[in-house]
Amino acid sequence: MATSHLANNMRATSEAFLQAWDTWEVESIMAIRAPECTHSMLPVNVGFDARTNAEFGAYLKTVGGFFTKSKMTMNDYVAVPAERRAVVRSTMLADAPWGEFRNEYVWFLRFTEDGLLVTEIIEFIDSLTTRDVKAKIIEHVEGEKSTN
Questions:
Q1: What residue ranges define each of the domains in the chain, with the CATH number in brackets?
Q2: pLDDT averaged over the chain?
Q3: Which InterPro entries does this one have (predicted)?
C-alpha cells in the first residue's frame, strides 16, 4: 500500500477512534478495532493489563453509562506509517452525575496493514483524575443502592 494512502487511513481511523468516545456506545468504540485488538491502560497503578475486545467491551458497559455530553478532542498526532503506528494526545470533557469530567490521554495505536482498523491500544491516562473518578463512581453506585 502506498505510504500516503496508509498514512491517510491511519489518520482517519485515529480520528474515528476518538470520535467514538463522544457517544460511549460500546458498538461504536469497538467498530474501529480489529478482532485481535488488545487494549492496555497505564500507568499500572490505575490501569490494567491487555484486554481482548470482549473484555474491554464488558468493562465499557460498566463505566460508560456515567458519562454524557462527551467530547474527545485530538490535541496532537504523530504517525509512523512504515511501522503502522501512531501516537495521539487527546482531552475529554463530559458530564457525569457528580459534575464535569475532564481527563487527558495519550494513545499508542497500532494498525492493520491497510490502516483501517486498530490492532493494539496502549492508553495512558491521568492517574490522579482516574483515581478520583473511580472513587466517585463507587460513591455514586453506593448512594444509588442506599436510596433503593
A1: 3-147 (3.10.450.50)
A2: 87
A3: Fungal_Meroterpenoid_Isomerase, NTF2-like_dom_sf, SnoaL-like
